[in-house]
UniProtKB/TrEMBL annotation:
Organism: Noviluteimonas caseinilytica
Organism ancestry: Bacteria, Pseudomonadati, Pseudomonadota, Gammaproteobacteria, Lysobacterales
Location, primary (coarse class): cytoplasm
Pathway: Carbohydrate biosynthesis; D-glycero-D-manno-heptose 7-phosphate biosynthesis; D-glycero-alpha-D-manno-heptose 7-phosphate and D-glycero-beta-D-manno-heptose 7-phosphate from sedoheptulose 7-phosphate: step 1/1
Domain SIS: from-to ranges: 40-199
Protein name in UniProt: Phosphoheptose isomerase
Localization in the cell: Cytoplasm
Keyword DNA damage applies: no
């Protein structure tokens, strides 16, 4: 039993390391990060906000990253406007009841989003219907879309201004990549918006 557990642990480490190695060697990913940071910073400097949404583990990412912006990441600075569209159960259940689950995020984008905002759409498959509909609603309103998907990109890919495609088809590996990139994005936005004073 212990041997099986150890082999499983080693195998998972190996897969995660291989995934991060592939990400670290991807020049296109580096450029996507640059584009995404620029998109978010331009929006924030122009009075915009960043909306986040996802399902399941991706909903947790949406809330996590919004919290990093509103509160802080590496250091104290003024809060930045980030909103997770996954947190208000009254809104989510009202929309789900009245319009269907596929509209849980699109309806909120319609109500809260304005041209120049950013919608961060998180879906490991890229095919979550409620995320795809929210991306469509965003594009219709002049809201920039940043996608987080697995390697294929799914239906979300053509709707995204920039899309982070983690080079894996395994949900855990994709989510691990998303978490790393999301942290990096929050860090770089924080630094660009409120540069830390040199000691």
């Amino acid at each position: 039993m212990a041997t099986d557990v150890i082999q499983t642990v080693r195998g998972e480490f190996a897969k995660s390391l291989a995934n991060f190695r592939a990400m670290s060697e991807d020049a296109a990913l580096e450029q996507t990060i640059v584009q995404a940071v620029d998109t978010c910073v331009r929006s924030l400097r122009n009075g915009g906000k960043i909306l986040f949404a996802g399902n399941g583990g991706s909903a947790a990412d949406a809330q996590h990253w919004a919290g990093e912006l509103v509160s802080r990441f590496y250091y104290d600075r003024p809060g930045l406007p980030g909103i997770a569209l996954t947190t208000d159960t009254s809104i989510l259940t009202a929309i789900g009841n009245d319009y269907g689950y596929d509209y849980t995020f699109a309806r909120q984008v319609e109500a809260l989003g304005v041209a120049g905002d950013v919608f961060v759409a998180i879906s490991t498959s890229g095919n979550s219907p409620n995320i795809v509909r929210a991306a469509e609603a965003s594009r219709a309103r002049g809201i920039h879309v940043i996608g987080f998907t697995g390697q294929g990109g799914g239906a979300l890919l053509p709707l995204a201004d920039v899309c982070f495609r983690v080079p894996s088809t395994e949900t855990p590996r994709i989510q691990e990549g998303h978490e790393f990139i999301g942290h990096l994005l929050c860090s770089l936005i924080e630094c660009a918006m409120y540069p830390r004073d040199a000691d």
